[in-house]
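Design job #97: recover the sequence.
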């Protein structure tokens, strides 16, 4: 059974391990420049700070994805403008659990938390254009493709082709 919940202190080692121990090919498929990877200490500090922040002050907000009560991944939003918009990311940690359709349901389960708790009007997602899995998932969830272009989508990334997807609150409410 799939479920989602907010990030807890006990989840920080697993998220940190995902970033630090994932194989280089997986990280590069997402557009990550492994030379820019944060240290374990920086990951832990950043994630711990998230737990202490009020929703109105969060710079990142994370939902843990579970399969049968076991954490298997996460979705987070960052570049948050409280009451307006944020940018979503989606990650299944264990490669043996990827590409099986779970992301679709887990994203659908995460979206209400992002929209409600951050009072968002719209959510964007900007995966690497060559990474098929998240792009297919976003389309199936109901996101609309805004454009495809080249940019540096995050602090761990270099310039790369991305697809910018958008889901507004009105569209979300119509779909779900």
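Job complete. Output follows.
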């Amino acid at each position: 059974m799939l479920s989602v919940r907010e990030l807890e202190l006990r989840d920080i080692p697993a998220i940190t391990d995902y970033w630090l121990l994932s194989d280089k090919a997986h990280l590069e498929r997402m557009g990550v420049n492994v030379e820019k990877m944060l240290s374990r200490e920086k990951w832990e500090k950043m994630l711990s700070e998230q737990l202490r922040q009020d929703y109105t002050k969060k710079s990142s907000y994370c939902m843990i994805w579970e399969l049968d009560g076991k954490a298997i991944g996460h979705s987070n939003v960052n570049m948050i403008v409280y009451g307006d918009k944020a940018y979503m990311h989606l990650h299944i940690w264990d490669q043996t659990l990827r590409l099986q359709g779970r992301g679709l349901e887990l994203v659908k389960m995460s979206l209400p938390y992002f929209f409600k708790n951050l009072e968002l009007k719209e959510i964007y997602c900007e995966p690497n254009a060559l990474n098929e899995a998240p792009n297919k998932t976003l389309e199936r969830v109901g996101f609309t493709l805004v454009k495809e272009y080249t940019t540096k989508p995050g602090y761990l990334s270099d310039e790369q082709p991305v697809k910018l997807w958008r889901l507004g609150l009105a569209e979300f409410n119509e779909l779900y």
